[in-house]
Amino acid sequence: MKLFRPTAHFKSVFQITPEILKKFGIKAVILDADNTIRNVAQHKAIDGIDVWLQSVKQSGIKVILLSNNFSSNVRPFAKSIELDHVAMALKPMPFGVLRVLRRLGSKRKETAMIGDQVFTDIVASKFAGVKSFLVDPLEPETHWFWVWRRSIERKVIKSKKDKR
Questions:
Q1: Residue 98: which CATH number?
Q2: Fewest CB within 10 angstroms: 84, 116, 134, 140, which?
Q3: Are strands 62-66 and 28-31 parallel, antiparallel or unpaired?
């Protein structure tokens, strides 16, 4: 199903350079937080994300954080990396992505969502009509629900690669 197929798949956000974004026609990036650019257990940004964000912004691309977490959790993190944010996104529903598009004044075809989860980040971007860049999660989850969900995501990703 195309709903689960990202526009592109990368090991990490660091592989998504401003040049790659521009090749896709991207002028705005919607960035997931947990397990994409923030270690979940430590609630801290990954090393080097400040440099990556600076290079993306300096190339003229807008960046905003989008999270399903509560604002009280997201706001301090967003402030620490100098990004605007939208919390309580309700991904995989498109509501948060659509709020971001309005806030940034971005066109769908010029916007990409970067995240680590197929069933939230990628599906939300598909529902909203923006490009989707899947990155591998920073760390494995240990709770049984997440272990189970990630195993299904791996199967979906593998089945999409096999069909290409």
A1: 3.40.50.1000
A2: 140
A3: parallel
Residue with tokens 């498109």: 94
Q: How many Å apart are CA 50 and CA 53, to the nearest integer? A: 5
CB atoms within 10 A of CB 95: 15
The per-residue pLDDT for range 121-142, each reduced to its tens digit, is 999 999 999 999 999 998 766 6
**Domain span including residue 67:** 2-163
Residue 92 contacts by C-beta under 8 Å, 6 or more apart in sequence?
Answer: 119, 120, 123, 124, 127
Count up the domains in the chain and report the number: 1
For the stretch 72-128, pLDDT in tens is 999 999 999 999 999 999 999 999 999 999 999 999 999 999 999 999 999 999 999
